[in-house]
Amino acid sequence: MGVAENIAAVRSFYAAGPPQDDAKRHAFAAPDIVWHVPGQNPVAGCYQGHAAVFGEIGQRMQPLDDWTIEVRAVMGNADMVVAVVDLVAARGRHRVACTAAHAFRFDAEGRIAETWGFVDDQAKLDALFSDMT
């Protein structure tokens, strides 16, 4: 696949339903997808495979009052695509509004093989996921 197709796939990945429902995103990912969640919190870590990426991550994030992702920019180079997004998250007394990014690496079949997350205020996101109140 080419850069344009990979960029289109990332845009479609985000548009495939609300962030709380990953059911339609499975088709974009390789079966052995690896997702790197940053930080020092109960959600942080490396997840591999559909069940972990599209199940376990979401389960560890709960309960959430809000999780909104709005795509600002998507750009690519070879088999890599970076999406810059606005992220709003809320849980109990914690609310985070920040700039975040995902770096996607695609396999030869045009599927997402690996993803790394980034956020401009990791300490606030860590607090949101660490405090259940």
The biggest sheet, with number of strands, parallel, antiparallel or mixed sense and barrel status, is: 6 strands, mixed
Uncertain spans: none
List how many beta strands DSSP finds: 6
Report the top-level CATH class. Alpha Beta
**CATH architecture designation:** Roll
From the N-terminal CA to the C-terminal CA, the straight-line distance is 45 Å
CATH fold-level name = Nuclear Transport Factor 2, Chain: A
Average of per-residue pLDDT values: 94
- Structural Rg: 14 Å
Q: Choose one word for the global shape.
A: globular
Q: Largest beta sheet: what is the strand line-up?
A: 2-1-6-5-4-3
| Overall domain count | 1
Order of helices and strands: HEEHEEEEH
Percentage of residues in strands: 35-45%
Q: Which terms would index this structure?
A:
single chain; 133 residues; alpha+beta; Nuclear Transport Factor 2, Chain: A; 3 helices
Can you put this structure into words, describing what you see?
26% of the residues lie in helices and 44% in strands. It is built from 3 helices and 6 strands; from the N terminus they run αββαββββα. The chain is an alpha+beta fold and 133 residues long. Strand 4 and strand 5 form a beta hairpin. The chain has a single domain, classed as Nuclear Transport Factor 2, Chain: A. The protein is globular and about 45 Å long. The protein has a 6-stranded mixed β-sheet.
